[in-house]
Amino acid sequence: MVRLNARRLILMTVCMLAGALMFSSTAAFASGHKFARSLEVPSGGFSQPWGLAIGPSGEMFVGNRDSNVVDVYNTSKTPEVEAEFTVEGATEIYQLAVDDDATSPSFGDVYIASFGGSVLKYKYNSLTKTATKVGAISSGLTKPTAVAVDPRNGDVYVGDYAGGVPEGEEGYINKYGPTGTVITEDLVTGLDLPESLAVDSSGDVYLGAESGAFRYSESGVFLNSFGPETPELGVAIGPEGNVYVSRKAQKVFVYEPGGPEVETFDSSHTLGEDHGIGVTGTTGDTTVYVANFRGTEEEVGEFTPNVLVKDKLTVTKNGTGTGKVECEVNKVGGFKTCEAEYNENTEITLKGTAEPGSTFEGWSAGTGSASSCTGTSNCTFTIKANSEVTATFNTITVKDKLTVTKNGTGTGKVECEVNKVGGFKTCEAEYDENTEITLKGTAEPGSTFEGWSAGTGSASPCTGTSNCTFTIKANTGVTATFIITGGGSTGPTGPTGPTGSTGPTGSTGPTGPTGSTGSTGPTGSTGPTGATGTGSTGATGPIGKEGKEGKAGTNGTNGTNGEKGAAGTNGTNGAQGAAGPAGAQGPAGPPGKVQLVTCKTVKKGKKSVQQCTTKLVSGTVKFTATGASAHATLSRHGAVYAAGTARSTHGRMSLRLVPLRRLRPGHYTLTLISGSGRHETIRNESFTLR
Fold this sequence. Notes:
Layout: E1 2-3, H1 6-16, E2 33-38, E3 49-54, E4 60-64, E5 69-73, E6 81-86, E7 93-98, E8 110-114, E9 118-125, E10 130-137, E11 144-149, E12 156-160, E13 171-176, E14 182-191, E15 194-199, E16 205-209, E17 212-216, E18 222-226, E19 232-237, E20 243-247, E21 252-255, E22 261-264, E23 277-282, E24 285-294, E25 297-305, E26 310-318, E27 323-329, E28 332-337, E29 341-343, E30 347-354, E31 358-367, E32 379-382, E33 387-395, E34 399-407, E35 412-418, E36 421-426, E37 430-432, E38 436-443, E39 447-456, E40 468-471, E41 476-484, E42 594-604, E43 607-618, E44 629-636, E45 639-649, E46 652-659, E47 666-674, E48 681-689
Parallel strand pairs: 1-14, 26-33, 34-41
Antiparallel strand pairs: 2-25, 3-4, 4-5, 5-6, 7-8, 8-9, 9-10, 11-12, 12-13, 13-14, 15-16, 16-17, 17-18, 19-20, 20-21, 21-22, 23-24, 24-25, 26-29, 27-28, 27-30, 30-32, 31-33, 34-37, 35-36, 35-38, 38-40, 39-41, 42-43, 43-48, 44-45, 44-47, 45-46, 47-48
């Protein structure tokens, strides 16, 4: 047995724990429940409703202190009051309790504390809507005001006023078995008006008294108190194990068993002389009923949870880049990772931030409350429904320039293939960075692609004539060189011998390097032209004496010169050179033979050599005097196929022409222009190229 003064015990405990169990009544807690309504008033009205208890079948019993009538409610039906019964032999009924232990012999029985000195026990029949008295507990009781049943075993705890005044501190708690046998008298003593009791699933006992709310072990040891020292008129245990306390002239507070306050009910409905309190429902979804009277205003009030509607927010990221989307709630607390859902009517601001190397392109595809989100600015809306929005992030595209320069005497084209797909096409001026590019050089007919050079940037490795592949990572340049095929200059034609009868053609010696052009001698009569060998052109042999047989060239034996013929008529114009007086016309001789020699430079090992070819041209060439020169062109059908100079040296004509087009066998016109101004002479001769 524990006999302690409750107030003195509280003060002692507070001192020992340095205030650890005290909680300010002004602390801010969320209002988890709101006043929903007042239940239906019984046909006979209320008469100071005090006690309230909820049975295992959902019936709620409300005791009227002054009339000793119990009203039975079923809140799932209409009308809500389904029955009432009068408590026989009662004097001012106070708290009610119901045995919820299915294994107890008193399961479902209603216990009613009567101030007349006993706790009366009734069994309610939900089918017949009638109640029958089945027993009473009176041993050790004087003026019982509070009663509770242990849900584990059906044991009954009774709080007794003991006939003193509140300040007398003579109240106590007794413990009984389900059948009413005494287990422990004076479990707790020194109480100042025990108004309500409750027992949790672990057997701890909760007391609502005039001086506050307290918790004891099942053996009567004080554990802790709840809230300040104010009149606590009703206590009940919720399905989650929390303690619901109704305070006089205030509201309902919810505490954890150890003492911390977790919820304060909506204060818009102030309680009066509230006493009985009951909790039904499941964890997180409880409905609380309070028997309440304020003078002439009497009711059973219903408090329901503030249902917070949650709306989903789905943010989808799209695009080739990366970034993050953050949310700010109600414009406070800064931007943080967005939640999957928010309470309805919450103001949300969305912000998109791109990662380095990416850019935020904006909002799109908004639905629900986010349907107005567009552009790249922050988007603010009040969420009222499930909402979705898409944030697009793209990679920043860097462009690198590609400059291809063509060089050389020839012509051709440079093409590009991108990422080895799509084939070769005209190169672009710039490409996206990290694009793979393959360069290809193709020469036009008559030209040769000589290769890549002067590469800069990503094309710096490009050399040789093969395709060049690289990944562009910076502004890049490269040069492609094209040259004319056979671009070597034409070697000089051997000097024309004196005009005379043509001797037999000597056999041509082996090809040797092309000799340099000899200086032009004075114009004289042209000796007979030595026959040209049929092999490739060798070095020109020494010039035969005028009018005599020419000596054979060093590279081959020349034929014997023919007899000296009559002097041939001078050519129409001398080769282009310094103008001088026309030489006297020499004697006419038989027409000489003209060779057209074309050469090109080729590589042989590490050396460059001239490779020449010779074609016979048939026709007549006449010069006015030895040493004359003329500008020469070879044309066909108005198109010039070769151009150069014609020169007469020691009686022989030398043509030095550069092909401009591909020369084919056929008829051509050789045009010789000599002199200038009024002394300019133009002569056209027809030739056949074999």
